[in-house]
Amino acid sequence: MIKLLLLPLIFVLFVFMPPGTEKSSARRAAIACAPDTYYTLAGLPRIKHPRLVYPDDKSDYPLVVANDNTIPAGKLFNNTLELNLEVVWSDFYIETNQRPGLRVVTIAEKGNAPTVPAPMIRVKTGARIHVTLHNSLKDSTITFFGLQKRPSATSDSVVLNPGDTKDISFDSGEPGTYLYRARIGRWPYAYGNEEEQLGGAFIVDPKFGSKPDRVFVVNIFSTPIDTSLFKNGFLDALTINGKSWPYTEAFTPSVGDTLRWRVVNASGRPHPMHLHGFNYHILSLGTLLKDSIFKPGFEKAVVTQTILPASTMSMQWVASRPGNWLFHCHLSFHVSTDIRLPGMTELDQPDTKQHMAGLVVPIYIKPGPSDLISKGPEKEISLFANEYMTGKYKRNGFSFSSFFKEDTNTLSAPGPLLVLKQYQPTYVTVTNNMSFATSVHWHGLDLDSWADGVPDFSTSDGKMSPSILPGEKFTYKLTLMRPGTFIYHSHMNDAHQVASGLYGPIIVLKEGETYDPRMDHYYVVAWKTTDPLSIQDVELNGSYEQPTQYARLGEIHRIRFVNIAPAGEMVVKMMKDSTPVSIKFIAKDGIDLPARQQTMIKESQLLGVGETADFEFKPLKPGTYTLKFMYDEQFCLNQKWVVTD
Ligand SMILES: [Cu+2]
Questions:
Q1: Residues 136-155: pLDDT tens digits?
Q2: Which residue in 218, 352, 404, 422 has the most C-beta neighbors within 10 A?
């Protein structure tokens, strides 16, 4: 029985977590600080493991080159792309070539160095593609996926036995953002194990070409290692275009630049991709073999979009304000320093405070004018960050009062709701009453970079968001450009600090609007630990069971959903008995959907970490309803609604 109950969770964990990272996070009682001992590469203590390589060791394998996806692979002859790809063993340095790396299987264009991501295939629609594939591995079969015409409902694969060479030809098919990938072994589907770095972009441009863009490919490698050798328990490489933060490519647009990005998730895990400080429009969402390009006017504006395994997104945004910003995966375990390879932290300079790693891209927008509007009287808010014990859990949480009492609910997660007004200049002073440093990010808000809360990084107007040390405080200025549902949360060692309770909801009201908690409801999903063992470890508004909600026939209730758990995607739906009831999807990430994008839905899209979504519920029949927040059919949180006339 226990096993049956756990099965859905095990499934959920497998799908959304890199193995090992959640456990290693849980073992860390406090934030991951750099150790007191620092090494040079020559003096670094070494672990002997067939997959771990050190740059000063002798190696017979070629060095992987990080592929920034600016140059398509192959050569075009008479509208046919001639491509020669080879699967090889290689040495892959995901931070710098002076730090530990991994021995992994990768793809090279014949005659060139292997690359991660795999060489980009990019042609115009109507082109033919002729690929020669070679498997140089002596003992492993390789299966290629995605080398076929688009769109397609069925996935073709090409299997190469050790030493095999094969030739295939196919038409490009329809324009779009796709991917191809290979796996070690003989497999019926495109992803599963994470023993390789074998995914690449596959772009088909329209006949007259695409506007200038950049292509990002996410790859994941993860293999277990004995915890007696390395306490994190896994050797991981989570990379964007072949590099891991802080060594990912930096972007330096000017104010006013329009950026078009294609994001290809070649990994087997979902990534909620979050842009700081700005919203972006989703131009398309695709898979290995099919792309959906949205018509003008139907391109949703968001700050976070979950890209599912072996899926793609293209996006566009305007760099409308100067400063330092991030585009990153919001899944805490994909940006945690726990995913760094052994020795990386020890090689950091003593004055660097790494609190992120993995899937993070920095954006440095050059000095220029700002698009922000602030007007009306100033508002000041005090927030205190506290630590306390509840049962066996060490918890943290925000409160309005400095006198936190553990036996009241006032300090527990989520932090207090901040009801703010559009355009009102709002100053929030955060006082750190905890024993470790923190920093607060105002997720989804358009604001000045210096107030964005990425510690020792967010910078503008000569000011910077600091690491707020124990006993210290810092005042952030919030600018509130849009009414909607937002989040505040720690942006320091997220996997630990967010899971321990340092998060809360923000509602921004339109000018002149008032907040009516009887009609306007927020639901914040988070976890009690980084390692939940049952659904009771998932928190909805800080607890598991929710009080019954009451509504009258014909009333319009607003349901605001916030996902700030360390990992996992949920759907929201309303049921009456066992039948789904339509609710209206009205806003995403604090951005009202234009009327033509509002839809009546029986189940929301998957909403991942760092996503918010608003719905309207207008009951038309009396009776008992259930509002459901679901990881899957069994693993879900419910709230009873009683509707009377
Ligand atoms: Cu991710």
A1: 999 999 999 999 999 999 99
A2: 218
Q: Determine how many CB atoms are found less than 10 A away from the CB of residue 592.
A: 16
Tell whether 418 and 506 lie within a shared domain.
yes
For 508-536, how does the pLDDT look when each residue is reduced to its tens digit (9 = 90+)?
Answer: 999 889 999 999 999 999 988 777 778 88
Using a 10 angstrom Cβ sphere, with 0-12 exposed, 13-18 middle and 19 or more buried, the burial of residue 497 is: buried
Q: Which of 479, 513, 547 is the last residue of a domain?
A: 513
Q: How far apart are the C-alpha atoms of 313 and 11, rounded to whole Å?
A: 25
Domain count, the chain: 2
- What spacing in Å lies between the alpha carbon of 219 and ligand 1's midpoint? 10
Task: Give me ligand 1 centre to Cα 492, in Å.
Answer: 16
- Give the distance (Å) from ligand 1 centre to CA of residue 528: 20
Regarding whether 476 and 534 lie in a shared domain, the answer is no
Report the separation in Å between the CA atom of 612 and the middle of ligand 1, taken as the mean of its atom positions.
17
Cα 239 to middle of ligand 1, angstroms:
10
Q: Could you tell me the two tokens for 543? A: 């607890």
Together in a domain, 563 and 461: no
What's residue 349's pLDDT? 82
Q: How far does residue 339's CA lie from ligand 1's centre (Å)? A: 12
Q: Are residues 438 and 397 in the same domain?
A: yes
Q: If you measure from the C-alpha of residue 287 to the centroid of ligand 1, how many angstroms do you get, rounded to a whole number?
A: 17
Q: Provide the CA 481 distance to its chain's centre, in angstroms.
A: 24
CATH of the domain at 594: 2.60.40.420
pTM of the model: 0.93
Distance CA 385, CA 550 (A): 33
Position 541 in a domain: yes
Domain limits for position 454: 372-513
Percent of the chain with pLDDT over 70: 93
| Separation between Cα atoms, residue 536 and residue 388, nearest integer Å | 20
Q: Ligand 1 centroid vs 220 CA: distance in angstroms?
A: 9
Q: Of 478, 497, 513, which closes a domain?
A: 513
Is the confidence at residue 29, as pLDDT, over 70?
no
